[in-house]
Design a protein that fits this description.
It contains 11 helices and 17 strands. With 362 residues, it is an alpha/beta fold. Strands 16-15-14-13-7-12-11-8-17 form a 9-stranded mixed β-sheet. Strand 9 and strand 10 form a beta hairpin. The model has no long low-confidence stretch (mean pLDDT 95).
Length: 362
């Protein structure tokens, strides 16, 4: 099989993804060599720096040049959210496989269009919801699906970050509504929503609340001009799944002194599970009623990752390459999963505006 020839667009988070590709052979045999062929950034000087740091064969400040290159078979989209749709669309049109950062798009319409393009292309298109690849998340899903926990009644997911509580932190694309589509709801909440759907199924309706506490920021580093902030700092949502479970999602970038999550707790009539989806994704906390499993009572801490746990990005990107190797276009989480998350995000925003429950469309 010919090598996996990869081009990465955007090297801020792309650096992490490039390192994950380098690590894949230490954990999994995906059947062919992995070659980091090209990198594209927004400026020639950062492109040159990324090329030198990452060992890419060529670099460019024009992502279109990377997409058009016959030397690139896989386009890895790590650019800001407003570029996800144009880059992924162009890559699919050019016959490339696409791995796209989350959220898939800024709007439901953009996500719907990308889904249609991916289906028509016959290429593998996957979204970077890597938290579902943690061994604890995988084990929790098995316990839920095989009925070990009984009927799932309620759940809680929290994703807490600091770093945005300084009102003099300047505006960036993540704080620009037109470029990001949303604030912490999109940035961290998208991961949390994908985990909820992966574990518990599709959300049926939501009641959302979002707040922007820091309403203006410097226009740029060192600028005295302040501009309005149009995205949320804190997002809360009540969710009800199609199976009837109810739960709470909390996401914030103003958790001063805290950086953790997504923390997931799920309660069932026979047992409960709790785990951290990112910082300790291989440790599952499990409670089962003693009479159901003789000898096991109280909370038990279980290492689900074995002696050599696979890092999240490595597992997610290896899964993507394996789908390409096997000629499958059903790699999960695919663009359809990204579209579902986009619909939930939009429903939370609509609920906040309307002050009422909103049904998730689709």
């Amino acid at each position: 099989m010919k090598p996996f020839r990869i081009g990465i667009i955007g090297y801020s988070f792309g650096r992490i993804h490039a390192e994950a590709y380098r690590l894949i052979p230490f954990y999994k045999d995906v059947g062919a060599p992995i070659e980091l062929v090209a990198v594209a950034t927004s400026r020639p000087e950062t492109a040159a720096k990324a090329k030198a740091e990452g060992g890419f064969a060529f670099a460019t400040a024009d992502w279109r040049e990377l997409v058009a290159s016959p030397e690139v078979d896989i386009v890895h989209v790590c650019a800001p959210d407003d570029l996800h749709h144009p880059i992924a669309s162009a890559a699919l049109e050019a016959g490339k496989h696409v791995y796209c950062e989350k959220p898939l798009a800024r709007t439901v319409a953009e996500a719907e269009d990308l889904c249609a393009r991916a289906r028509a292309s016959g290429r593998v298109a996957q979204v970077a919801f890597q938290c579902r690849f943690g061994s604890a998340a995988q084990a929790a899903r098995r316990l839920i699906q095989d009925g070990t926990l009984g009927e799932i009644t309620s759940f809680r997911v929290t994703f807490l970050h600091s770093g945005y509580e300084d009102p003099d932190r300047p505006l960036t694309w993540r704080l620009d509504q037109t470029r990001a589509g949303g604030g912490v709801l999109y940035d961290l909440g998208s991961h949390a929503i994908d985990l909820i759907t992966f574990l518990l199924g599709r959300p049926r309706r939501v009641m959302g609340l979002t707040r922007t506490f820091i309403k203006d920021r410097p226009a740029a580093q060192g600028s005295t001009r302040r501009v309005p902030v149009g995205v949320d700092d804190v997002a809360l949502a009540l969710l009800e799944t199609e199976a009837g479970a109810v739960g709470l999602l909390e996401a914030t970038r103003l958790a001063t002194g805290v950086r953790r999550g997504p923390d997931v707790t799920i309660y069932g009539t026979r047992g409960s599970v709790a785990f951290n989806g990112a910082t300790n994704p291989d440790e599952l906390n499990l409670y089962l009623k003693g009479e159901k499993v003789p000898g096991l009572s109280g909370w038990e801490r279980i290492n689900t990752g074995g002696r050599r746990p696979v890092p999240l990005n490595v597992a997610a990107q290896a899964h993507f390459l394996e789908a390409i190797r096997d000629g499958r276009t059903d790699a999960e989480p695919g663009f359809e999963a990204g579209l579902l998350v986009q619909r939930v995000l939009a429903a939370v925003q609509e609920s906040d505006r309307a002050g009422e429950w909103v049904t998730v469309e689709g």
